[in-house]
Design goal:
This protein is α/β, with parallel strands linked by helices and 398 residues long. The protein folds into two domains: 216 residues, Alpha-Beta Complex (DHBP synthase); 143 residues, Threonylcarbamoyl-AMP synthase, C-terminal domain (Rossmann fold), CATH 3.40.50.11030. It has 14 helices and 15 strands. The strands form two sheets. It has a ten-stranded mixed beta sheet, sandwiched between helices. A five-stranded parallel beta sheet has the order 13-12-14-11-15, sandwiched between helices. The structure holds adenosine monophosphate and magnesium ion. The site of adenosine monophosphate has 20 residues, from strand 6 and strand 10.
Length: 398
């Protein structure tokens, strides 16, 4: 156990003020310690990427399997060259368009990068974050910073300093609190092989559509493809359990209205069998439909406080009292509107953690269209479900 200290900064501060405020965490990084910090995707747990002993502390703090490679974060493009053996032609254009930002490039690694960082692979994932606090911290440290998401391995990624504290307090040296991460899902991991097409190993903050505009031959898998035989050996981290709340999560896939019907049927079955507390991870639209069609379920959930936050107007006092459903039987976590998938991405992991806090025993989750950031959302939900997918029938309409 180590003592975890805290530093608070505002991302809106001027660069000089940030560099000054981040002197201590930068010194901790240079001295071989571990520092959690905000990025525009999720919070990262950083250590000096060139120091294998420091990097080992990341793996032990998180309980991360040693075959899951880390992404190396840089603040300036000059820091890329020493880390890689070669720079394929596309790198320049991709870096120009997407850096700083949520795109990780997997490139042939140089000998400077310790094997522990790349989990023994001969490639290294590199990214230049756009978050002002992440960027200033890396610059102040003066070294490239290896950083996976700052959660205990397997848990949903942290989007606030408080999530990091919950998972890693006493296991890391420092937490830099810089407010909530904006995007809410991790970076897109893009492999640029010496031979063959660029391949998205993990969908994330940069959509396939945007990548295609720059590299039309990019290969990508659907939301279920993360464990595909082709990709798994090249991105070993993808085979591990990920992003999971403590309660088992069932993901409903298919026609939207059929999803809701199937979810309600499953909810009723769970509640009637007294399987403990039920969690629902749903959109604003689904919550509104549920409020109309099943006010008893909705009213029971409002009592948890989760649905009440921005919940449908009047739900708390207007809804019909539950007949069979006790007030703390259901927790509804709303992830925002299906019309604004960016909002869903930013709230997804936060809501999973809130459902855990509410003490639910099972979670029923809705699925989303796989376009734009939706592909990353679906990839995380499929992994959180770990095989518990319910495929509902598409409805035939005349
Ligand atoms: P995390 O930072 O916790 O989101 O995990 C980093 C992700 O990037 C994992 O899924 C890794 O498998 C992937 N990754 C990092 N470096 C490489 C690499 N050299 N080759 C393939 N995938 C990588
Ligand atoms: Mg992670």
């Amino acid at each position: 156990m180590s003592h975890t200290s805290y530093v608070s900064v505002e991302p809106t501060w001027r660069r000089e003020a940030l560099l000054e405020a981040l002197r201590d965490p930068a010194a901790v990084l240079r001295a071989g310690g571990t520092v959690a910090f905000p990025t525009e995707t999720v919070y990262g747990l950083g250590a000096n990427a060139l120091d294998p002993v420091a990097v080992a502390r990341i793996f032990s703090a998180k309980g991360r399997p040693s075959d899951n490679p880390l992404i190396v974060h840089i603040a300036h493009i000059d820091q890329l060259v020493p880390l890689v053996r070669e720079l394929p032609g596309d790198v320049h254009e991709l870096a120009r368009v997407f850096w700083p930002g949520p795109l990780t490039l997997v490139l042939p690694k140089s000998d400077l990068v310790p094997d522990i960082v790349s989990a023994g692979l001969d490639t290294v994932g590199v990214r230049m974050p756009s978050h002002p606090v992440a960027s200033a911290l890396i610059e102040a440290a003066g070294v490239p910073v290896a950083a996976p998401s700052a959660n205990a391995s397997g848990r949903p990624s942290p989007t606030t300093a408080d999530h990091v504290r919950h998972d890693l307090e006493g296991r890391i040296d420092m937490i830099v609190d810089g407010g909530a991460s904006g995007i809410g899902v991790e970076s897109t991991v893009l492999e640029l092989p010496q031979h063959g097409a660029p391949t998205v190993l993990r969908p994330g903050g940069v959509s396939i559509e945007r990548l295609k505009a720059v590299i039309p031959d990019v290969r990508a898998l659907d939301a279920f493809g993360g464990t595909d035989d082709v990709v798994a050996p090249r991105s070993p981290g993808l085979k591990h359990r990920h992003y999971s709340p403590s309660a088992p999560l069932w993901l409903f896939i298919g026609d939207h209205s059929a999803q809701l019907e199937a979810m309600i049927a499953r909810a009723d079955a769970i509640l009637s069998e007294a399987h403990g507390k039920l969690g629902m991870l749903i959109s604003d639209e689904t919550a509104a439909t549920l409020e109309n069609s099943r006010p008893d379920l909705f009213a029971a959930a409002v009592a948890t406080g989760i649905a009440a936050d921005g919940g449908a107007d009047g739900a708390a006092d207007g809804a019909v009292a539950a007949a069979d459903v006790t007030a703390d039987a259901v927790a509804i976590a709303r992830v925002g509107s299906r019309e604004r998938l960016e909002e869903v991405a930013s709230l997804l992991f936060l809501r999973m953690r809130e459902l855990d806090q509410a003490g639910v025993n099972v979670i029923l989750a809705e699925s989303y269209p796989s376009s734009g950031i939706g592909l990353a959302i679906m990839n995380r939900l499929v992994r959180a479900a770990g095989g518990r997918c319910v495929f509902v029938q598409h409805q035939c309409r005349k």
